[in-house]
Specification:
With 82 residues, this protein is mainly α. The chain has 4 helices and no strands. This is Carrier domain-containing protein.
Length: 82
């Protein structure tokens, strides 16, 4: 079993897709705020990467409700637990 948690992997995906160091954002950081500055295409690409790397599908409706990094992490964690 890997020591990397799903939450760590979500943070890594966000960091890689948006070219932002993981140390620059936290769970309460808004996805579209000044720090991450994600546009809608970026958010879709993050969701696709989560699906591809973690096998967790996020529908468009669910994605629209997510506002922070923590929202994405919580969603992935809840799916993984079920």
């Amino acid at each position: 079993m890997s020591s990397t948690t799903e939450e760590d992997r979500v943070a890594s995906i966000i960091s890689n897709r948006l070219h932002v160091e993981e140390s620059e954002f936290e769970d309460d950081t808004p996805i579209t705020g000044d720090v991450l500055d994600a546009e809608s295409l970026d958010i879709v690409e993050i969701a696709e990467a989560i699906d591809e790397n973690l096998d967790v599908y996020i529908s468009d409706e669910e994605l629209e409700e997510m506002e922070t990094v923590g929202d994405l992490k919580s969603f992935v964690k809840s799916v993984e637990e079920n």
